[in-house]
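Same chain as my last thread, 771 residues:
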Amino acid sequence: MPLTHTEAKERIAAGLRRVNAITQVFVGWIPMFITRPLVTPIALIFSQLAVAQSSTSQTQDQIEVIVVNAQKRQQDIRDVAVAVTLIDGEQIARQHIKDTTQLAALAPNMKSSKVAGEGTAPSFNIRGIGMFDYNTSTVSPIAIYADEVVSGGANFLDSTLYDIQRVEVLRGPQGTLFGRNTTGGAILLTSVLPQAEFSGYARASVAEQDYRALQGAVNVPLADNTAARLAFNHVDYDYSIQNLDANGQDGGMRQNSVRLLVASEWENASLLFKLYSEDWQGAPKPIYSAGILKASGTGARCLPDEVGSRSCVDSFGFAPATDDFWQTEADTADKRHDTDSWGASIQWQWQVNQRWSLKSITAHKDLERFHSFDSDGPGNFIEGSLGSDNQFFSQEISASRQGENSHWMAGLFYLQEELKQQNDLDLFRDFRANPATAGGAVQFFYHNTLENQSFSVFSQLDYNLSPDWIVTAGLRFTDDSTEYHAIADMDVVGAYIPGVWDLRGEVDDREWSGKLALVQKLSSRTSLYYSYSRGYKSGGYNGGFASSEAQAVDSEYAPERLNAWEVGARLQLPQWDMNLDLAAFWYRYQDQQVFINRTTGLVPYHVLKNGGDSRIQGLELSLAYTPVSQLMLDLNIGYLPKAELGEYQEEDLYVAGTQLPFTSEWNISALVQYEINLAGGRLLSQLGFDYQSDFYFDQNENPYLQQQGYSLWHGRIAYQPNAQWEVALWAKNLFNRQYHELKFDSIAALSAVTELRGEARQLGVELSYHF
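reply #2:
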């Protein structure tokens, strides 16, 4: 007989009671796939917190609600089955976080880098998933959503952060709610929106390395229901590395950004218009060419710890004239960077009735970029340029329904992006002066056009099974295609050869992906979540620096797929003034897309390929603690005991079980903030650090390409005599730690490692005025 409604509810309740009993051993089965030394203390902490939680009064007025937009609507973080880190815009301004690549210090298991230098395609890595690739045709598995508009290709990933309301870092596959599929995660940027009153601010700062910055915003009400906000940002700085070469320059960048937001709100509808523009000009950071051969001339190699000193030379006997970490010799007089970009978007939302709402997001972006680079120090052996003309259009339409016990959202997403590449790679130009070696010099010119289209249908349902249980189910269908036209010309001594290859092709992928999750509320302050996600990222064409038609043909790559299991806990402990988030995850990759460095042969060859079935597992802890009202502590711990590349073999290259590139076992960051009243005003101070353990810059675990673990400290002390004025002293890399942004394998060609070295200590002063 069919069950009555009451009998069905009773059976569901009985089932949930059984599941509730299982959750009591939640921490008992985590060690089955994570190493015990870290899990055992966390399990003990969890059990003690649970006891403390159950004995605490749960009156509603004592509960702090942390609101996130991780599921495209405002929710209490304890109702969300997503690992999310919320970053306040004021914190970003105080730490002088200039752009999205500097957010890594604020979220567990997140890393980022400029890869090939300021202004090139950045790399993001979340939980071991990323794309350490300088190529502008790359689509990252980490997406940036700026005011709900997806980033698109690699050129649009590096976003300047100014006048920001909040940032949310979502870890794990995203796709059943967001416009574009991502296997690694998403970073949500929200600008400060226009308000109904006239207000604004201006902030000026100067610092070492000829750093000058001016930022501000003006908020203007235009009508009863309409307001506008104009924000601007100017930054001008030099790099800390000094170039001693007579034909070199130290390098630096000037970045100008402006953004206009116009918002209107009516009784049942709202509209947000955004227009922005960015102009970057400067010269790239000089590289350091670190030879690996002993200067004795025996041909023996230096130890990895010796590389970077005058005791080691390259194939041509070159060694820099100094052992100073922030001095180099590089022929960069003709190198430059230029980026011009703009974009516009319009969002409208209509509340049809109390239950139904509709939303539309339309966006267009345009970017032109030229970046020339030097990879060999004072010689002319490996040099080139990256040129891009990038146009982007996206449209998203969604509908949502709020029921008594449910929330349902469904939508359509379309993206069209065209990238025209004008790149070149100039190899062994110095050989041209000698007839005996002139035949080894060659310059390639690449004229590639890639047209990407993506269409998807997505839907997600959140349903309250009971007051203590929420189930989430999401599904997505994606149809992606990449059409490419790759042309290469070649210049050798005495001849210019057009059309060395002329290739056309298309990569077309279709795939289903989805998510199933449960949220269990143990109390009004504590929740657990259990999640399974099927992530997917389409294949494509890697328009890189091929040196033969065979390599150009081989530049297609296939889709990657990810099965992701995750459990997490969120606890609010008012008796300790503490919020604690825990997460454990296990990933199984199929055909993970990895930037492969082919180290054989004189000509560098780097290509994006499917690197096998990888395994990743780890833990995360985020803690916010306020022992007294004036003192605040934030701590993030990321632990990846296993992040291994699957088996990959192509010709003479074989890799299996090596550590995924750009992935550390430990990522730890902390921030202490202290505020006191002083002389009628407020004194604010903060001190923090970001620690990353050892990692490799390639898939081979080459000891010459290893970055040793390091910590970067930052600090700030500010005084506010009143609500309008603030003066501050700030510091980055407080203890002048030496580290690398990139180590690139040029051993086969030069017997050297090409290095981009991190920035030295920087001390600055800042003045702010609010009105």
